[in-house]
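Notes for week 9. Today we move from apo structures to complexes. The key idea is that a small molecule is not decoration. When we ask for a structure prediction with zinc ion present, the ligand SMILES becomes part of the input, just like the chain. The input block below holds both the sequence and the ligand string. Read it once before you look at the output, and try to guess where the molecule might sit.
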Amino acid sequence: MGLKTWPIFFLRSVPSLICWTNTTLITNNNYSANMTDTPSTAFLETGSWKWDADQIIAYIEKECLSPSIKRVGNDGKQDLRAVHAQIILPSLRGGDPFVTNDRQLVYVWVRTKHKVQGKDLRVPITDFFTALGWIISMVQSPVAPNINIERILAFYVKWCSTIGDEYFLGHRQPNTASIAWLTLVEGQDSSALYTPHHDIFSVSSSLPGGNPYKLQAAKMRHECLMTLLAPRVLPKAPRHGQMQTDGTRTWVDWGHCAETLAVLCIYLDVPPERRMKGLAVYTGTIAQASSFQSDLVRKAKKAACDNCKVLMQVAQIAYEDRCSAIQHEEDMNKKKREQDAKDKEKKAKERREMEERRAKEKIQELKERRAKEREEKEKQRLADEQNRQARQRQEAADRDAKQRRDDEKHRKSNRR
Ligand SMILES: [Zn+2]
C-alpha cells in the first residue's frame, strides 16, 4: 500500500469543475477541485482567530485522526496519527512544548508530501509548535493560487500563541514563524497528490528559546538538513560566532531557524528555475492582535538571516524573500508619498505666490487708478481755473466795454 497508491489519488483528484465557493479561503471563483478533496473550511475563517485553546485542539484532533486520505495519502494519515499521539497530546499533558522520555527529546520523523529524486523526504517533528505547523501544511496545502498566504502564516502564529498562553505557561514561545510556498506548474512534481497550478505551502516556527531541549531539537533538524542535502555539504553556519553591531556574538547554528522545516516541506525534485517564495515574521505583535488585519504580517516581517541565505544556496533553491519585495513596495510607496507631499507643497507655494502677485497687482492697479483720478481732478481743476479766469477776463472786458459805451453816451449828451 502506501506510495504505490499515490498515482491513483493523483488521477482521482483531476478537477471536476465544481466551484469551491463555500469558504473564505478561496479568492478565485473559477477555482475548481474535487469536493471530497476540499480542506476544512474552519481554518482561516475570521472567527477562528479568536478560537480558544480547546477549539484549536479539537481542530488538530479532527485533522490528525480523520484527515481526507485524498489530501494526505495513507502515509500522511499514519504520520498525522503519530504526531498527534507522540507530540501533540503528551506536550499538552506535560505543559511543555517539548516532550521528553528519560531526559531524551521525543521526536517523530514524518514524510513531507513530496519526493526528491523519487524518495520520500523526512523531517523531524520535535515540539508542539513545529507539529502544529506541519499539520496545517499537511491538511491545508495546496491552496488555490493567489490566496492570501500571509493570512495562513498569521493564523498559525495566533494559534501557537493561544495554545502557548494556555498550556505552556513559563515556557517561551517561538519568536519567529515562516511560510514558504511555490506554484506547481505542468510537469513539476508528478509524484505529488495534486494537479498543477496549485500553491503548495508549508509553515513552521523557530525553536522556542530558553528550553533545555531546544539544542537537541536543533541538532535533529541540522542532521536532517545534512542528510537531505548530501552530497552537498553545509558550511559552518554564518551566524555561529557572528559579531553583531552591539559587539556581542550570536551562536545560532543550523536547525534553529523557522525557515528550516518550512523550506524542506515543499522542497521538490524539480528544475532550479522554479522560484520558491518565503516570508518570515516576528511573532509578538501578531500573537497579541485581537483580530486579523492585512498589514499585521507586513509590519512583523523579518528578512531571512545569513544562515537561511546560505541554506538556500546550498540547497540550490531560487528563493524569493517576500520581505525584500514588501520592503521594496514600502520604499516605493514612501517615495511616492514623499514626492506627492513635495508636489503638493510646490503647488501650494505656486498658489501662494500667484495670490501674492495678484494682491500686489491689485494694489498697483488701485494706486494707478487713484493717480489717474488725481490727475483727472487736477486737469479738471486747471480747466475750471482757466474757465474762471476766462470768465473774469470776459466780465472785465464786458465791464470795460460798457464803461466805454457809457462814457461815449456821456460825451455826446454834453456836446448837445
Ligand atoms: Zn534564518
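Confidence is low (pLDDT under 50) at residues 1-36.
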